[in-house]
Amino acid sequence: MPLKISRRTVVATLTALGLATGAAVPSFAADKVKLRLATSGSETDQRSVAMAEVFAPMVADFATYEPSYNGTIFAQGTELDAISRGNLEMSITSAQELAQFFPEFSIFTAGYVHQDAAHQVAVFNDPLMDAFKAKAEDELGVKLLSVMYLGRRQVNLRQSKDELTVKTPADLAGVNLRMPGTDAWQFLGKALGAAPTPMAFAEVYTALSTGAVDGQDNPLPTVVDAKFYEVTGQIVLTSHLVDLNYIAISKSVWDELSAEQQAKLQEAADAAAESGRQKQLEKEASLVAFLEEQGMAVYEPDLAAFRDQVQGMYLESEFAASWPEGVLEQINALGSK
Ligand code: KDO
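Above: inputs. Below: predicted complex with KDO.
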């Protein structure tokens, strides 16, 4: 059960401690603003690279950027709470994590809703997002700056294709599929037809190598970056979720910046997101050959069978009941299909 903490409570607590925002706080006075960012991604993940190489230099005249990787300082899924409590300034967060606080964010976690990277950007910048963004700011103290592309999630199994060939969701019955540890992720695993197991990203390589799980799902660049190909035998190109992350910042830190600094920071976040997106797309397009060279089978299943099952299960789920009326139709209208 995630801790729900209101922004008012956070501000009241900080005020009681004499740390209320608005007054001259040392880190905002003569010093630069400290921007600690926590991510469960690695240092070589394209989102991390874009933040370090594009974002950080663009804000360097007024901010110091201090990233931490691999969920080391804040475990995967705890970053939003840390920002809300004033213990962290930034994170690369997910709709699945936001859905723990605000169930309606699960609309962005549903399989086969986002169509591609451009669709994600169109949705994020559309007025339909205003109410979602306002809720995260007002009730959690988290401002969503920009949308990052993680990629098309694929099913990645230990078994060779000879041992198990996946054509339809029925072929995944009983497959112990690691999914990240929130309800929205677990439901996606079930919708694929598998038996999902919650586990933090940092533990996945070991779990695959020991056989504690049969597989995991992630985009191809992540499979390569995390070297999952060393401990798995096949990739089923289900493309079940065109996955995204948001660059998130503490709303109170944001409010302390001047209008000029805010504009620079926003520009830097957008530039980093765009750079990371292009690099991730390039990798995604080129990695099938690399994975095949590593001896992996990479193949498409019956995509219509997966899409029909996943979409059907979402529409009948309790998640869909939390989606604001008409938003799914608005999202679909922004796509090209
Ligand atoms: C994962 O845990 O499988 C996931 O892909 C979920 C994403 O939201 C994101 O947090 C990502 O891990 C990590 O950054 C590692 O790439």
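The longest helix spans residues 259-293.
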